[in-house]
Design goal:
The complex is a heterodimer of chains A (316) and B (250). Chain A has 316 residues and is an all-alpha fold. Chain A contains 14 helices and no strands. The chains are: A mainly alpha (316), B alpha/beta (250). At the A-B interface, helix 9 and helix 10 of A face helix 2 of B.
């Protein structure tokens, strides 16, 4: 069974479902007869569907790249400091540069995410490879500490409600004109395909990769930059969506392995499908109210995460 | 030829190598032996440019290690990675194909595929090409790493203790393949070995190191003496001859 056509078909079905799922009743027929319905479709449903697809794709791909850079299966940027750092960046931007345009805030968030993920790499580098569970442990504590700093700064600045927006990802606010930054996240994810082979070589260890003539520093820096930019874009536009970057690459690795040139397209499609499905569920479960998509992926993702940790330990 | 001139190296204030001068001409297998901490692995990683040279000079043919580009050196000299370091779930064929990176920068062409197929066949891995590394035995994994280094198509091949964790049949199989690469393909192989008997059986030349210096250098016959065992390894192990070959009695 070829996974790519299968996933593409699944994505199209989910996208169609997503267009006609929501509080206001919208039928395919009405789209062509009722101008109000067409407007709803173009202003709200299409952007929301695209946002879920782009975010899922970016999150899953950056998770896979981070796992290769960290040489560990159990980390993903959203929970390992990059997501929290991006929130800290955009929070500081809100406090310090209130009048600046969105791209300036975005820049600060991406810079903070880069510093956060570079900090994580420096922290986990000395950890012994024989103890793979130390890496996610350190990463979760590290992410938690930055998250606490975010809450503290927000509390001091009376911005706790804003912080909730960045720390808990949801798509109910997505409208035309308010999600377009995610195209950049999708483009960043697509661009990582260019360095896929180089990132895969890192799996041989720094020494062997350099022995093959790879510039390890440049490839690592490029990977971290891509991770940070994607993460920051998703956090600023939708808020943090956890576990997608962890579960999807692990699923794909079981099926296809870690050769990124083959794996990344699958990862992107699977990530998009997961976030879109989670967002449809978020709209349906408590109709007419919505549940943040982050809560759904958190629940859906944490169970496989525990399973992975348990199985990973059995294998090591 | 690999030429090492006046090479000294210090790690954390502790001298590891003292003024080493050594020539490794093309062809044949040279085994580096010596007790733990003698500086064998450091010497190998300096030649392979994995550690920056502090003092002295190493040249590989016309290329100077540290000055020539990584890509040029990667087309001349391959180092076999250690098994424990491969962190990703890769197929055997994908791993071996990585050895072609210095030539194709990740865009394999017809020649690359032909070379990969040849390396897989040489190491008896053709049937396993689509299996993941975590689905094969330790000996097969080691063969896959050796096949990857072979696919790199370099004149020089460096191996750091490749026999670790191999059973006797896998270890002999790997050494025989290296012997064949030296004899049939004219490769120059430098290998760090712990087991002196493997060095005696398969190497053309043995370089024994102790305390960062070269203690003995020559054909196995001349180098392996009870005196060497005492001076270099501080061991009273006896050396006997079996079929005209020196053997350490352990």
């Amino acid at each position: 069974m070829r996974p790519v056509p299968l996933l593409t078909a699944l994505l199209m079905a989910l996208a169609a479902l997503s267009l006609f799922t929501g509080v206001s009743n919208l039928t395919p027929r009405a789209v062509f007869t009722d101008p109000e319905a067409t407007r709803l479709l173009l202003i709200s449903r299409v952007p929301r569907t695209l946002a879920a697809l782009l975010a899922g794709c970016a999150l899953a791909v950056s998770g896979q790249i981070m796992q290769m850079l960290a040489r560990n299966r159990f980390v993903e940027p959203m929970t390992a400091g990059a997501g929290q750092s991006a929130a800290l960046g955009v929070l500081l931007a809100t406090i310090l540069l209130p009048g600046e345009p969105i791209w300036a805030k975005m820049g600060l968030a991406a810079g903070a995410a880069l510093a956060g993920s570079a900090g994580l790499m420096a922290l986990i580098r000395p950890l012994p490879p024989t103890q793979p569970l130390l890496v996610p442990l350190v990463a979760l504590v590290y992410g938690g500490m930055i998250g606490a700093a975010v809450t503290f700064v927000a509390y001091q600045g009376d911005l706790l409600q804003y912080v909730e927006v960045w720390l808990t990802g949801e798509l109910s606010g997505v409208l035309k004109g308010r999600y377009e930054l995610l195209w950049l996240a999708g483009a960043t994810a697509a661009a990582t395909w260019v360095i896929a082979d180089r990132v895969t070589l890192l799996a041989l260890g720094d020494a062997a990769a350099r022995g093959l003539g790879l510039n390890v520093t440049v490839v690592t820096a490029a990977g971290l930059a891509a991770i940070s930019l994607s993460t920051a874009l998703v956090v600023v536009t939708l808020g943090a969506i956890p576990f997608v970057g962890l579960v999807v690459p692990n699923l794909v690795a079981r099926h296809t392995g870690d050769n990124l040139r083959a794996a990344l397209p699958l990862t992107a499609l699977t990530g998009a499908a997961l976030v879109l499905a989670a967002d449809i569920a978020a709209r349906v479960i408590r109709q007419p109210f919505e549940i943040p998509v982050a809560a759904i992926t958190g629940i859906l993702g944490s169970m496989p995460f525990l399973l992975l940790l348990y199985r990973g330990r059995a294998r090591v | 030829m690999i030429s090492i001139r006046n090479l000294s190296h210090v790690i954390d204030g502790r001298p590891i190598l003292h003024d080493i001068t050594l020539d490794l001409p093309r062809g044949g297998i040279t085994a580096l032996i010596g007790p733990n901490g003698a500086g064998k692995s450091t010497l190998l990683s300096l030649i392979a440019r994995l550690t920056r040279i502090q003092q002295g000079q190493i040249t590989v043919d016309d290329l100077t290690v540290g000055a020539s580009s990584d890509r040029d050196l990667a087309q001349r000299l391959a180092i076999m990675p250690q098994q424990a370091n491969v962190s990703a779930r890769l197929r055997v064929g994908e791993l071996v194909a990585m050895g072609r990176y210095p030539w194709n920068r990740g865009r394999p062409g017809y020649e690359d595929r032909a070379q990969v197929a040849e390396s897989l066949a040489k190491f008896g891995l053709t049937q396993l090409a689509d299996r993941f590394l975590d689905q094969i035995s330790g000996g097969q994994r080691q063969s896959a790493l050796a096949a990857m280094a072979h696919a790199q198509g370099t004149d020089y091949l460096l191996l750091d203790e490749p026999l670790n964790n191999l059973d006797i049949s896998a270890a002999r199989g790997l050494m025989r393949l290296l012997r064949d690469m030296a004899d049939a393909e004219g490769k120059s192989i430098l290998i760090v070995l712990h087991d002196i008997n493997y060095a005696a059986a398969y190497a053309d030349r043995i370089v024994a190191m102790a305390n960062g210096r070269i203690a003995a250098d020559g054909a196995p016959d001349g180098v392996l003496t009870p005196q060497l065992m005492r001076d270099v390894f501080s061991s009273d192990a006896d050396i006997i001859r079996v079929n005209g070959r020196p053997v350490v009695v352990v």
